[in-house]
Write a structure and sequence with these properties.
The longest helix has 36 residues. The protein has one domain. It contains nine helices and no strands. The chain is mostly helical and 239 residues long. The protein is elongated, with a radius of gyration of 21 Å. α4 crosses α7 and α6 packs antiparallel against α9. This is Bacterial nucleoid DNA-binding protein. It comes from Paenibacillus wynnii. Keywords: DNA-binding. Pfam families: HEPN_Cthe2314. One of its GO terms (molecular function) is DNA binding.
Length: 239
């Protein structure tokens, strides 16, 4: 959608994004098949299918946010906020909007994946923490000591992206709980020298963190859904 609004050609899924989308679409198709064959009177399969389709939409929106932030970043060339002409300030504001939207969606999407995993594997994570996160779900897997192969793969992905995730989490927490993250950068610079011009934050480094966060999400989704598909097919073959 955003690519069309920006005059860009539609996205063709490839690489990590395509792998994640395909694994979720396969699970959604399998769930629809189960709904037909079992009538799904308790709506268990229906709920999982709705959640999976929601994750597909959320991943699409996250990728679009990263793309739009990258698109508007190209128009930001001035090194300080004070020297930016009005039109460039507007482009910078659009970059900030989609960048923020992106890093908030990284953690929102992971928490939604945690909800799906909690339901699929009867983890009862809410008994440990009422409002649990994806990372609480990973710890719960370790406690119950089931599905070791799955949790090892998910932890491996998480650990590979530890630094960019930490950077994104700091900015997410600042944005949600304290003040706008880019304003916090400005305040820190003002404390260094009240008469100095405010330098722009490292937008390329921030975008790279977001890109890596997107990659981490894609890999986590692919691992979780591929494993779940394999488990489902094994269960079906045993019956």
């Amino acid at each position: 959608m955003l690519r069309i609004l920006l005059g860009e050609p539609p996205r063709v899924n490839s690489g990590l994004l395509a792998e994640a989308m395909n694994s979720m679409e396969q699970m959604a198709a399998l769930l629809r098949k189960e709904m037909k064959s079992t009538q799904d009177r308790d709506h268990v399969y229906r709920q999982l299918e709705i959640w999976t389709r929601g994750l597909i939409s959320s991943l699409d929106e996250l990728e679009q946010s990263w793309f739009a932030a990258s698109y508007y970043r190209r128009s930001v060339i001035t090194g300080t906020l004070d020297d930016m002409p009005v039109l460039e300030q507007e482009e910078y504001a659009r970059y900030v909007y989609f960048y923020k939207n992106g890093f908030i969606r990284v953690f929102s999407l992971l928490d939604k994946l945690g909800t799906v995993l909690n339901a699929l594997y009867d983890l009862n994570t809410s008994k440990v923490k009422a409002h649990f996160s994806y990372f609480t779900v990973l710890r719960q897997f370790n406690i119950i000591k089931d599905h070791k192969a799955l949790v090892e793969q998910l932890n491996k992905v998480k650990d590979a992206y530890r630094e960019p995730l930490q950077n994104l989490r700091k900015r997410r927490n600042s944005e949600i709980h304290y003040m706008n993250s880019e304003m916090e950068d400005d305040l820190w610079q003002r404390h260094k020298g009240l008469n100095e011009k405010v330098k722009l934050e490292d937008v390329d480094a921030h975008l790279e963190d977001l890109r890596l966060g997107l990659n981490m999400v894609c890999k986590s989704l692919t691992v979780a859904y591929r494993y779940s598909l394999e488990q489902w097919r094994k269960d079906v073959s045993r019956h």
